[in-house]
Design brief:
The structure is a single chain. The chain is mainly α. The protein has two domains: 128 residues, no CATH class; 188 residues, Hypothetical protein af1432. The longest helix has 54 residues. It is elongated. The N terminus and C terminus are likely disordered.
Length: 345
Protein backbone atom coordinates (compact mmCIF):
# COMPACT_ATOMS: atom_id res chain seq x y z
CA UNK A 1 0.00 0.00 0.00
CA UNK A 2 2.78 2.44 0.89
CA UNK A 3 4.67 1.77 -2.34
CA UNK A 4 1.46 2.40 -4.32
CA UNK A 5 1.08 5.69 -2.46
CA UNK A 6 4.62 6.77 -3.29
CA UNK A 7 4.86 5.53 -6.88
CA UNK A 8 2.83 8.25 -8.69
CA UNK A 9 4.80 11.09 -7.09
CA UNK A 10 8.11 9.28 -7.55
CA UNK A 11 7.34 8.76 -11.23
CA UNK A 12 6.42 12.41 -11.63
CA UNK A 13 9.67 13.48 -10.02
CA UNK A 14 12.01 10.93 -11.52
CA UNK A 15 10.28 9.73 -14.68
CA UNK A 16 13.07 11.57 -16.47
CA UNK A 17 16.42 10.80 -14.84
CA UNK A 18 17.44 14.45 -14.78
CA UNK A 19 15.77 17.61 -13.52
CA UNK A 20 12.94 18.73 -15.81
CA UNK A 21 13.15 22.07 -17.62
CA UNK A 22 10.15 23.44 -15.69
CA UNK A 23 11.68 22.59 -12.30
CA UNK A 24 15.20 23.68 -13.29
CA UNK A 25 14.34 27.12 -14.63
CA UNK A 26 17.28 28.76 -12.83
CA UNK A 27 19.76 26.23 -14.24
CA UNK A 28 18.19 26.58 -17.69
CA UNK A 29 18.55 30.36 -17.42
CA UNK A 30 22.21 29.87 -16.48
CA UNK A 31 22.79 27.71 -19.58
CA UNK A 32 21.06 30.32 -21.74
CA UNK A 33 23.09 33.22 -20.33
CA UNK A 34 26.43 31.42 -20.73
CA UNK A 35 25.55 30.44 -24.29
CA UNK A 36 24.40 33.98 -25.11
CA UNK A 37 27.58 35.53 -23.69
CA UNK A 38 29.65 33.09 -25.74
CA UNK A 39 27.72 33.97 -28.89
CA UNK A 40 28.17 37.71 -28.33
CA UNK A 41 31.88 37.31 -27.61
CA UNK A 42 32.26 35.16 -30.69
CA UNK A 43 30.62 37.79 -32.85
CA UNK A 44 32.59 40.74 -31.45
CA UNK A 45 36.09 39.36 -30.95
CA UNK A 46 38.61 38.29 -33.54
CA UNK A 47 40.19 35.55 -31.39
CA UNK A 48 37.76 32.95 -32.71
CA UNK A 49 40.14 30.06 -32.05
CA UNK A 50 39.90 30.90 -28.33
CA UNK A 51 36.20 31.77 -28.16
CA UNK A 52 35.03 28.48 -29.68
CA UNK A 53 36.30 26.65 -26.61
CA UNK A 54 33.88 28.64 -24.45
CA UNK A 55 31.07 26.63 -26.04
CA UNK A 56 32.11 23.78 -23.75
CA UNK A 57 30.74 25.71 -20.75
CA UNK A 58 27.00 25.67 -21.61
CA UNK A 59 27.37 22.04 -22.74
CA UNK A 60 28.91 20.99 -19.42
CA UNK A 61 26.31 22.92 -17.38
CA UNK A 62 23.44 21.43 -19.40
CA UNK A 63 24.88 17.93 -19.01
CA UNK A 64 25.24 18.34 -15.25
CA UNK A 65 21.72 19.63 -14.59
CA UNK A 66 19.62 18.20 -17.42
CA UNK A 67 21.43 15.17 -18.77
CA UNK A 68 22.48 13.87 -22.13
CA UNK A 69 19.59 15.03 -24.34
CA UNK A 70 19.84 18.76 -23.64
CA UNK A 71 23.66 18.64 -23.57
CA UNK A 72 23.78 17.10 -27.05
CA UNK A 73 21.20 19.64 -28.24
CA UNK A 74 23.34 22.53 -26.97
CA UNK A 75 26.43 20.98 -28.60
CA UNK A 76 24.64 20.69 -31.96
CA UNK A 77 23.38 24.26 -31.67
CA UNK A 78 26.91 25.45 -30.92
CA UNK A 79 28.36 23.68 -33.95
CA UNK A 80 25.66 25.12 -36.23
CA UNK A 81 26.27 28.59 -34.78
CA UNK A 82 30.02 28.43 -35.44
CA UNK A 83 29.37 27.17 -38.97
CA UNK A 84 27.04 30.12 -39.53
CA UNK A 85 29.74 32.52 -38.28
CA UNK A 86 32.23 30.98 -40.70
CA UNK A 87 29.86 31.47 -43.61
CA UNK A 88 28.73 34.98 -42.65
CA UNK A 89 32.10 36.36 -41.52
CA UNK A 90 34.83 34.38 -43.30
CA UNK A 91 37.34 37.20 -42.76
CA UNK A 92 37.59 36.24 -39.11
CA UNK A 93 38.85 32.80 -40.09
CA UNK A 94 41.06 33.49 -43.14
CA UNK A 95 44.10 34.28 -41.01
CA UNK A 96 43.61 31.12 -39.00
CA UNK A 97 42.97 28.64 -41.78
CA UNK A 98 45.09 28.53 -44.96
CA UNK A 99 42.52 26.64 -46.97
CA UNK A 100 38.80 25.75 -46.84
CA UNK A 101 39.71 22.08 -46.40
CA UNK A 102 41.70 22.80 -43.24
CA UNK A 103 38.81 24.89 -41.94
CA UNK A 104 36.37 22.04 -42.55
CA UNK A 105 38.62 19.44 -40.93
CA UNK A 106 39.21 21.71 -37.94
CA UNK A 107 35.45 22.24 -37.53
CA UNK A 108 34.82 18.50 -37.72
CA UNK A 109 37.44 17.83 -35.05
CA UNK A 110 36.20 20.61 -32.77
CA UNK A 111 32.53 19.72 -33.27
CA UNK A 112 33.30 16.04 -32.71
CA UNK A 113 35.05 16.71 -29.41
CA UNK A 114 32.23 19.02 -28.32
CA UNK A 115 29.63 16.39 -29.15
CA UNK A 116 31.67 13.66 -27.46
CA UNK A 117 31.96 15.84 -24.36
CA UNK A 118 28.19 16.33 -24.33
CA UNK A 119 27.59 12.61 -24.79
CA UNK A 120 29.98 11.48 -22.08
CA UNK A 121 29.08 14.17 -19.53
CA UNK A 122 25.37 13.68 -20.16
CA UNK A 123 25.63 9.90 -19.83
CA UNK A 124 27.51 10.20 -16.54
CA UNK A 125 24.89 12.64 -15.28
CA UNK A 126 22.07 10.28 -16.27
CA UNK A 127 23.77 7.39 -14.51
CA UNK A 128 24.22 9.48 -11.39
CA UNK A 129 20.53 10.40 -11.44
CA UNK A 130 19.49 6.76 -11.86
CA UNK A 131 21.70 5.82 -8.91
CA UNK A 132 19.94 8.46 -6.83
CA UNK A 133 16.57 7.02 -7.88
CA UNK A 134 17.64 3.54 -6.80
CA UNK A 135 18.92 4.90 -3.50
CA UNK A 136 15.67 6.77 -2.94
CA UNK A 137 13.65 3.64 -3.71
CA UNK A 138 15.75 1.71 -1.19
CA UNK A 139 14.83 4.31 1.41
CA UNK A 140 11.17 3.91 0.47
CA UNK A 141 11.53 0.30 1.56
CA UNK A 142 13.00 1.48 4.85
CA UNK A 143 10.09 3.89 5.26
CA UNK A 144 7.63 1.05 4.69
CA UNK A 145 9.28 -1.09 7.35
CA UNK A 146 9.35 1.77 9.87
CA UNK A 147 5.77 2.73 9.13
CA UNK A 148 4.50 -0.85 9.58
CA UNK A 149 6.45 -1.14 12.80
CA UNK A 150 4.86 2.03 14.12
CA UNK A 151 1.33 1.06 13.07
CA UNK A 152 1.72 -2.36 14.68
CA UNK A 153 2.27 -0.67 18.04
CA UNK A 154 -1.06 1.14 17.98
CA UNK A 155 -4.10 -0.38 16.32
CA UNK A 156 -6.07 2.82 16.81
CA UNK A 157 -3.73 4.78 14.56
CA UNK A 158 -3.42 2.06 11.94
CA UNK A 159 -2.83 3.66 8.52
CA UNK A 160 -2.86 7.09 10.17
CA UNK A 161 0.48 8.05 8.60
CA UNK A 162 -0.70 7.02 5.13
CA UNK A 163 -3.86 9.08 5.44
CA UNK A 164 -1.89 12.08 6.68
CA UNK A 165 0.55 11.66 3.78
CA UNK A 166 -2.29 11.55 1.26
CA UNK A 167 -3.96 14.66 2.64
CA UNK A 168 -0.66 16.53 3.09
CA UNK A 169 0.31 15.84 -0.51
CA UNK A 170 -3.06 17.12 -1.74
CA UNK A 171 -2.65 20.31 0.29
CA UNK A 172 0.91 20.86 -0.95
CA UNK A 173 -0.23 20.31 -4.53
CA UNK A 174 -3.12 22.75 -4.04
CA UNK A 175 -0.58 25.32 -2.81
CA UNK A 176 1.41 24.75 -6.03
CA UNK A 177 4.65 23.92 -4.25
CA UNK A 178 7.59 22.55 -6.24
CA UNK A 179 7.71 18.81 -6.81
CA UNK A 180 10.76 18.23 -4.63
CA UNK A 181 9.08 20.04 -1.73
CA UNK A 182 5.90 18.00 -2.22
CA UNK A 183 7.98 14.83 -2.09
CA UNK A 184 9.58 15.96 1.19
CA UNK A 185 6.11 16.71 2.56
CA UNK A 186 4.89 13.25 1.56
CA UNK A 187 7.84 11.41 3.11
CA UNK A 188 7.79 13.63 6.20
CA UNK A 189 4.09 12.92 6.67
CA UNK A 190 4.66 9.18 6.36
CA UNK A 191 7.32 9.37 9.07
CA UNK A 192 5.93 12.19 11.20
CA UNK A 193 5.15 9.84 14.12
CA UNK A 194 8.14 7.54 13.74
CA UNK A 195 9.60 8.87 17.00
CA UNK A 196 6.83 7.02 18.83
CA UNK A 197 8.72 3.75 18.32
CA UNK A 198 10.86 4.86 21.29
CA UNK A 199 7.81 5.58 23.46
CA UNK A 200 6.22 2.95 25.65
CA UNK A 201 3.49 0.97 23.86
CA UNK A 202 1.45 1.24 27.06
CA UNK A 203 1.53 5.00 26.78
CA UNK A 204 0.61 5.00 23.09
CA UNK A 205 -2.34 2.66 23.69
CA UNK A 206 -3.49 4.32 26.91
CA UNK A 207 -7.30 4.43 26.91
CA UNK A 208 -7.48 7.80 28.67
CA UNK A 209 -6.26 11.34 28.41
CA UNK A 210 -2.55 11.78 29.12
CA UNK A 211 -1.33 13.63 32.19
CA UNK A 212 1.27 16.42 31.94
CA UNK A 213 4.36 14.22 32.24
CA UNK A 214 2.96 11.69 29.79
CA UNK A 215 2.10 14.47 27.38
CA UNK A 216 5.68 15.79 27.57
CA UNK A 217 7.00 12.31 26.81
CA UNK A 218 4.61 11.95 23.88
CA UNK A 219 5.50 15.39 22.52
CA UNK A 220 9.17 14.43 22.49
CA UNK A 221 8.46 12.02 19.64
CA UNK A 222 9.02 14.82 17.11
CA UNK A 223 12.65 15.35 18.10
CA UNK A 224 13.24 11.62 18.51
CA UNK A 225 11.74 10.97 15.10
CA UNK A 226 13.91 13.63 13.45
CA UNK A 227 17.02 12.14 15.04
CA UNK A 228 16.02 8.65 13.93
CA UNK A 229 15.49 9.69 10.30
CA UNK A 230 18.71 11.72 10.35
CA UNK A 231 20.57 8.53 11.21
CA UNK A 232 19.41 6.99 7.92
CA UNK A 233 21.65 9.34 5.91
CA UNK A 234 21.24 12.51 3.90
CA UNK A 235 18.77 11.20 1.31
CA UNK A 236 15.80 12.03 3.57
CA UNK A 237 17.13 15.33 4.91
CA UNK A 238 14.22 17.23 3.37
CA UNK A 239 11.74 15.31 5.54
CA UNK A 240 13.53 15.95 8.84
CA UNK A 241 12.22 19.53 9.40
CA UNK A 242 8.70 18.26 8.67
CA UNK A 243 9.01 15.56 11.32
CA UNK A 244 10.65 17.82 13.90
CA UNK A 245 8.34 20.82 13.65
CA UNK A 246 4.90 19.46 12.72
CA UNK A 247 3.62 20.16 16.26
CA UNK A 248 4.93 23.75 16.41
CA UNK A 249 2.20 26.39 16.64
CA UNK A 250 1.94 29.13 14.03
CA UNK A 251 1.12 31.98 16.42
CA UNK A 252 4.04 33.71 18.08
CA UNK A 253 1.76 34.30 21.10
CA UNK A 254 1.65 30.55 21.71
CA UNK A 255 3.36 29.42 24.89
CA UNK A 256 4.41 26.22 23.17
CA UNK A 257 8.11 25.89 22.54
CA UNK A 258 9.51 25.61 19.04
CA UNK A 259 9.38 27.72 15.91
CA UNK A 260 6.52 30.07 15.05
CA UNK A 261 5.03 31.68 11.96
CA UNK A 262 7.02 31.52 8.75
CA UNK A 263 9.97 30.12 10.69
CA UNK A 264 8.19 26.75 10.64
CA UNK A 265 9.03 24.89 7.41
CA UNK A 266 6.09 24.91 5.02
CA UNK A 267 6.02 21.10 4.99
CA UNK A 268 5.64 21.00 8.77
CA UNK A 269 2.81 23.54 8.63
CA UNK A 270 1.00 21.37 6.08
CA UNK A 271 1.46 18.12 8.00
CA UNK A 272 0.32 19.87 11.18
CA UNK A 273 -3.09 20.54 9.63
CA UNK A 274 -3.41 17.10 8.01
CA UNK A 275 -2.32 15.35 11.22
CA UNK A 276 -4.82 17.30 13.31
CA UNK A 277 -7.66 16.59 10.89
CA UNK A 278 -7.05 12.84 10.87
CA UNK A 279 -6.66 12.77 14.66
CA UNK A 280 -9.99 14.57 15.07
CA UNK A 281 -12.01 12.28 12.77
CA UNK A 282 -10.40 9.03 14.01
CA UNK A 283 -11.85 7.06 16.93
CA UNK A 284 -9.57 6.85 19.96
CA UNK A 285 -9.81 4.62 23.04
CA UNK A 286 -11.00 7.57 25.14
CA UNK A 287 -13.34 9.26 22.63
CA UNK A 288 -15.28 8.87 19.42
CA UNK A 289 -14.05 10.58 16.29
CA UNK A 290 -15.79 13.75 15.13
CA UNK A 291 -17.46 14.14 11.76
CA UNK A 292 -15.42 15.61 8.88
CA UNK A 293 -17.54 18.76 8.99
CA UNK A 294 -16.84 19.21 12.70
CA UNK A 295 -13.13 18.63 12.12
CA UNK A 296 -13.01 21.31 9.42
CA UNK A 297 -14.77 23.75 11.76
CA UNK A 298 -12.29 23.05 14.56
CA UNK A 299 -9.28 23.53 12.29
CA UNK A 300 -10.75 26.69 10.81
CA UNK A 301 -11.15 28.04 14.35
CA UNK A 302 -7.45 27.45 15.03
CA UNK A 303 -6.33 29.23 11.83
CA UNK A 304 -3.83 31.93 12.66
CA UNK A 305 -3.13 30.51 16.11
CA UNK A 306 -2.16 26.86 15.87
CA UNK A 307 -2.23 26.62 12.06
CA UNK A 308 -0.99 28.66 9.12
CA UNK A 309 -4.00 30.45 7.53
CA UNK A 310 -2.68 29.82 4.01
CA UNK A 311 -2.43 26.10 4.69
CA UNK A 312 -5.90 26.03 6.24
CA UNK A 313 -7.33 27.76 3.17
CA UNK A 314 -5.74 25.17 0.87
CA UNK A 315 -6.89 22.39 3.21
CA UNK A 316 -10.52 23.55 3.01
CA UNK A 317 -10.35 23.56 -0.81
CA UNK A 318 -8.96 20.01 -0.79
CA UNK A 319 -11.60 18.76 1.64
CA UNK A 320 -14.36 20.46 -0.33
CA UNK A 321 -13.12 18.83 -3.52
CA UNK A 322 -13.01 15.41 -1.85
CA UNK A 323 -16.56 15.95 -0.63
CA UNK A 324 -17.73 16.84 -4.12
CA UNK A 325 -16.01 13.77 -5.57
CA UNK A 326 -17.52 11.55 -2.89
CA UNK A 327 -21.00 13.01 -3.55
CA UNK A 328 -20.61 12.35 -7.24
CA UNK A 329 -19.47 8.78 -6.57
CA UNK A 330 -22.30 7.76 -4.23
CA UNK A 331 -25.02 10.14 -5.34
CA UNK A 332 -24.98 12.31 -2.21
CA UNK A 333 -27.01 11.63 0.93
CA UNK A 334 -26.13 10.76 4.49
CA UNK A 335 -23.61 8.13 3.45
CA UNK A 336 -21.07 10.74 2.37
CA UNK A 337 -17.54 10.12 3.61
CA UNK A 338 -14.25 11.77 2.89
CA UNK A 339 -12.19 9.60 0.60
CA UNK A 340 -9.01 10.89 2.18
CA UNK A 341 -9.98 9.51 5.59
CA UNK A 342 -10.37 6.00 4.22
CA UNK A 343 -6.98 5.59 2.56
CA UNK A 344 -5.38 2.34 3.65
CA UNK A 345 -8.27 1.13 5.79
Amino acid sequence: MLKELLTPRRNQLFGSPIKSLSDGWFELLLVTIVLAVTLVAHGMLNATHVIVHFYYLPVIIAAHYFGRTLACTIALLSVLTVCAFMLLAPAHYQARFTSPMIAVMTMIAWGGFLGLNALLMGTLSNQRARAMIELREAHVGIIEILSKYLNAADQYTKSHSMRVAELSTSIATQMKLKDDIIEDVRVGALLHDIGKVEISTRLIQKAAELDASERDEMDAHTVRGADLVRSLGTILDGAIPVIKHHHDHYSEDSKQQGLHGEEIPIGARIVSVADAYDAIVTDRPYRRGRTPEEAVTIIRGASGTQFDPKVVAAFEIVISRHNDEADAAIGGGNERTLAVTNVGE
